[in-house]
């Protein structure tokens, strides 16, 4: 069995260069690869195209890369929690491609499965459909969407083994699952890294064949974007 462990986040992001396209898992701040994002924010890479459901918040998650002007283009479905993102978008500093959330997920899953393109009714008749092939199926119009082509996919899992097999926990599974294996190289950071054979085969969500690098992360903050509690 191939041992895919690397020492830390710095070793994991080796080879990521300016101008590359990255997929980053997570939904809001749930399940984001905190260690790799921090390592990227401390690197010199710029002009990145980032595919992520959202853009973090101003001082955390992808907000760190936005603050450092390291992102050239964001491909996302929801971006409402980041004031710096809004400023850069409105000023023309940041290129933004808004994508329906289901389409974003399917463009990841299609890349993971080796499917080059697919038809979907989502976005037909809107700006999303502009410049895209349109076709009718069963009396309903659809648009052609192409699978993503990314250089690296960076995902976060709860537990993994030395061979790259991954188990997600709860809602942190989100976009991490379809992004794993959807790029040329997949990096997985995990909270618990164990020897091969310690994971229940029936519990594995992503097989190790889809992962090229894995490491155990440290000091996960696991922030909550909007903490709402009822009055006592």
UniProtKB/TrEMBL annotation:
For this protein, the record's Pfam families field holds: CoA_trans
Q: Name one GO molecular function term.
A: CoA-transferase activity
**Keyword match Transferase:** yes
Q: Which UniProt keywords apply?
A: Transferase
PANTHER family linked to this entry: ACETATE COA-TRANSFERASE SUBUNIT ALPHA, KETOACID-COENZYME A TRANSFERASE
UniProt protein name: CoA transferase subunit A
Recorded source organism is: Planobacterium oryzisoli
């Amino acid at each position: 069995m191939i041992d895919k462990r690397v020492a830390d986040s710095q070793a994991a992001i080796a080879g990521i260069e300016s101008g590359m396209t990255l997929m980053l898992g997570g939904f809001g701040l749930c399940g984001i690869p905190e260690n790799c994002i921090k390592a990227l924010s401390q690197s010199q890479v710029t002009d990145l195209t980032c595919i992520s459901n959202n853009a973090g918040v101003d001082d955390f998650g992808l907000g760190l890369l936005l603050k450092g002007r390291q992102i050239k283009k964001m491909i996302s479905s929801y971006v409402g929690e980041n004031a710096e993102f809004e400023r850069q978008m409105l000023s023309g500093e940041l290129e933004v491609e808004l994508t329906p959330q289901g389409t974003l997920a399917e463009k990841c899953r299609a890349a993971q499965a080796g499917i080059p393109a697919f038809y979907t009714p989502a976005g037909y008749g809107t700006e999303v459909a502009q410049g895209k092939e349109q076709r009718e199926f069963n009396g309903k119009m659809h648009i052609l969407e192409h699978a993503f082509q990314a250089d690296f996919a960076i995902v976060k899992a709860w537990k993994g083994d030395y061979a790259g097999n991954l188990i997600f926990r709860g809602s942190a599974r989100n976009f991490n699952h379809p992004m794993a294996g959807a790029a040329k190289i997949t990096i997985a950071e995990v909270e618990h890294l164990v020897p091969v054979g310690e994971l229940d085969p029936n519990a594995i969500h992503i097989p190790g064949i889809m992962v090229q690098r894995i490491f155990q992360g440290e000091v996960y903050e696991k922030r909550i974007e909007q903490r709402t509690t009822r009055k006592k």
